[in-house]
Zinc finger, FYVE domain containing 9b (Astyanax mexicanus), 755 residues
Amino acid sequence: MRQAVTATLSVWGERRFGYSTLKDSREALLDEGWLMPGLKEDSVIEEKELADSEKEQLEVVLGSAPSTPEDAQTQGDPGQPETDTLSSAHKCESPSGRRASVNVTGSEIGASHVRRGSLGALPVQRCSSLGSTAPQWVPDSQAPACMKCGSKFSFTRRRHHCRACGKVFCVVCCDLRFRLTHLGGKEGRVCVTCHSTLINSGYLKELLNSPCLEREEVVNSPKGSSAKPLPHKGLPPILTSTGVKGDYTVEEKRTESSLLEELEQGQTEPLVFVLNANLLAMVKIVSYVNRRCWCVMSKGMHAVGQPEVVVLLQCLPEEKRFPTDIFSHFIQIYWDAQTAGKLVNHLSHSVAARGFLGSKEHAGFLYMRPTFQSLDGLPLPPQPFLFGLLILRAEIPWAKAFPLRLMLRLGAEYRFYPCPLFSVRFREPLFGQINNSIMRILVDFRFYRYTLPVVTGLMVDLEARSTCITIPKSRHAELLKALNKSNERVLAMGACFNERADSHLICVQTADGQYQTQAISIHSQPRRVTGSCFFVFSGALKASSGYLAKSSIVEDGLMVQVTMETMLELRRALRDMRDFTLTCGKLQQSDRQEYVHIQWQDEEPRFNKGIISPIDGKSMESISCVKTHQRLEYRANGKVIRWTEVFFLQREEQSNGPNANANHNRLTERLARAFCLALCQSLSLLKEDGMTKLALRVTLDGQKFLAGSNGQALPLHYQDSLNQSLRAVVQSVSQRHGHAALQLELIFYILEDIS
């Protein structure tokens, strides 16, 4: 059933609270002079830095950098005329999404030349050689300051060389990683400019096809079995069933037109494309909420600890080509998960190269778990899985810093609560330049050195004359961490999507760049409880103001102004895990007062929905688990066995803290090693029998263990091998830990060894 939403302009700032607006609340923060460290409010400075950054990137991409140090010094002379390489008008996105121009004067460009020249300019590598050949390093003696932001190096601000261009930067400007050919395919530290250039130039495809990844030392590591790249032309092979259960053939020369014809005729089963021996992409054309969409889903991500990914992409009129860019993106997600343990999760995002899905503005995907949306008629993988929503480059700052705002804004745009599951290509961006949003104060949108912390399970409920902030008791440590890092006069935190609410605040940016508050709700349901995306407590209220406290709606969040005495009491209550209530309103007007409650709850946030044990189908919902990233895989007879995660079915409450976690890590690693070694010679037989996902459940105090797959215990001849390998380990651990109540379940996958 289509979940339509109604979008109405919220007037809660006046109707519910009556005495505060966005402008008032923001000025209250600015009047106190509260700005986060390193925040630049001067738009002239920011515009100049943007021009410098864009010029550096253009020099690299266009190959217009000087080829010798002498040429560099010549260009660095402010007295020399400007070259034609860099136009004086730089393109940028206006708040409305249209192209606009920012005029940069010659003196500003000349100043940037002087700054880089004074730091010791060296030849900038051309795009064709960037990352593929070792750069010439700038000596430390020639770099007294960062060659991007100009920060002077000191005992605490250290130098870092970019492994792609050889320049010297501070940790803020050179804190990214990229796989470089001249390092044998290994990751190296790169600066932000080179990172952007390497991604945009399609260097990743060149790396995946590089022969350096076929060398033996790489093959014997997890990197060697990660991803076999797609051919540049044509479609991947098709996997088809022979009619015998479990028996398939691979067809490599099917034409695109014949495959499209099969899909157009309403084929019931999806087409299965082989991206590599362990990763498949299943494609079908479906009708979803009266939209004709490509349904592309992965199969095989679970084996590297990554949730499967589903993309619903609205078809273009008369479209006759498969969206193969999604295949390449699936391979990249798989690669990152297997080689670096980098996973995409709920409200995280991934970035694609320019030109993705036919447009330079398409940036990648924002991932989310479905909640209230209809899933009828969709072929879906087993849990866990995520839907990928196409996002634009102008929306990347929000995907990084505040993804919940972007998700809900998509819901308002397409009238689905809380957001659509489908993506539309070539749409207009929902957000433009970040102008006067309150988030500009709370988030470092330039380097992301600080952002709005989010405590898992924290939610904000807005009701008539009452607001309730609920926090799970089990997340007290997370809240303390955010509390310790916060400014003493301001406490700001992001909230999670509130599934208990029937509506939610959203933030809309107008054509003139202003931010407005709106609300979306489930169609035909009355609004009783409205969710909020964040809260801010500010200690800016004067005791002489005549107010106990002030509360108001700001964009898609809640702002509460209190006195510094109240702020100290609030912080003590949070540290002590005590409930706390604030009364908002004037001292002498009790009939118009509002209340803000902070309540601690025993209820755990729900997670791991739909996940079951391979041993007996036991539900793993709300059972804590830890993902593992193995640096060593166990191989035998062309197969690989990987350990991906461990579930803690039962453990003592006092077994927390770093020492307990370290003990658990050593224990699980010993059990995983013994399990893999015991089954190593049987991997081919297990895979042939369809037992590719395995589990080992260990009860420590009873010295019991059980292994299974597909909802039943492993056959007896496998159990015998496990008994010999595991019993000694379990007994040894039990003696060391005494009668500790600990029950674990480890998850393993058997893969093809494609090295």
User: Anything to note?
Assistant: Residues 1-124, 203-213, 215-232 have pLDDT under 50 and may be disordered. Residues 658-679 form the longest helix (22 residues). The CA atoms of residues 259 and 271 lie 8 Å apart. The radius of gyration is 28 Å.
